[in-house]
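[09:14] KT: can someone run the structure on this one? pasting the chain below
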Amino acid sequence: MAQNLDIKSSDIETLVRFASDNKIDLTVIGPEGPLASGIVDAFQLKGLRVFGPNKAAAQIEASKVFAKNLMHKYEIPCAKSVDFSSYEEASKYLKSQQMPLVIKADGLAAGKGVTVAETREQALQALSDIMDARLYGDAGNSVVIEEKMTGREVSTFSFADAYTSVPMVSACDHKAVYDGNKGPNTGGMGCYSPPFFLTPELSTEVTDRIMNPTIQAMIRENKPYQGVLYGGLMITDQGPKVMEFNARFGDPETQVILPRLKSDLLEIMLAVTDNTLKNINMEWSDDACVGIVMASGGYPGNFKKGFPITGLNDIDKDIMVFHAGTKLDSSGSIVTDGGRVLTIVASGKNLAEAREKAYNNISQINFEGCHYRRDIALFE
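[09:31] RB: done, structure tokens below
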């Protein structure tokens, strides 16, 4: 039986004390913020077993400048880029460049610090928002400016200990809030696995040219990586290239990947913490998985909370419902409490079957203002 605790993820000292006092055998870190703040280091200092990269290794997500410099140094395929810590120098550079370009805040910005600028005006406005207006706080101390890549996006994952990395199955997510990939980007409006376009040959190339070399590069930099490495990639005409790395499982990607895992997840996580991953034989289901996010009205902008959620008991037994932005109100009813509220996940022998099952069931659930995309895992 799971138990929710009223401890903020930023309160590392209290989390460590709780795990120690209650003799917690393994703590799994989900959010990027605590990883970047050194929660793994704090747990390890107390002799507590914890799954996730330490503060030094988590820089691969926490600092885009660090990640880009690492990739350039070790010739890991990625977009051409430059970085700046001066607003004036970055602005001068932009005025001399051809568009389009991608402007990225260096630090963590809850998935919102990236702008694909088609015009110079858009690029300069994005730069001003990051470095002058400081919309993302200290995440905007530096900025990365890179070429815009074209192709298909894919999310790839590997488990890694200090010596070994083992690839997982891949997924694709839908970032834009509206159908047809329209509207602002979100934390993810839906996801599917496996990607229909990722051939076995491409998967091997991703592992051999990107994921494994990155893990080895971190070892050479004396920042051995333990946990999940998530590569957000673009499949370009020149082959797979890295857009960004995350130091954790992605959301909602995890919700369509782990249902396909036939091996014991706990056994894998313990092997990662013990640096014995090489002894693990991972098995995956051939089934497809589709997840659809139900979001609050107004998301990813302003939205209201506290609306009752109905229909959760009316879905099929083989459908999974992952709660993200929910809570229990004073009467014990489940109400909305976030932007992305629920993810409805279905499995099937192929993507079409999984998609049909997910949409047949999502229509049973409702809350005031809810919206979701109707084109998740729908291909042209």
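[09:33] KT: thanks! The longest strand covers residues 227-236.
[09:34] RB: yep, looked fine to me
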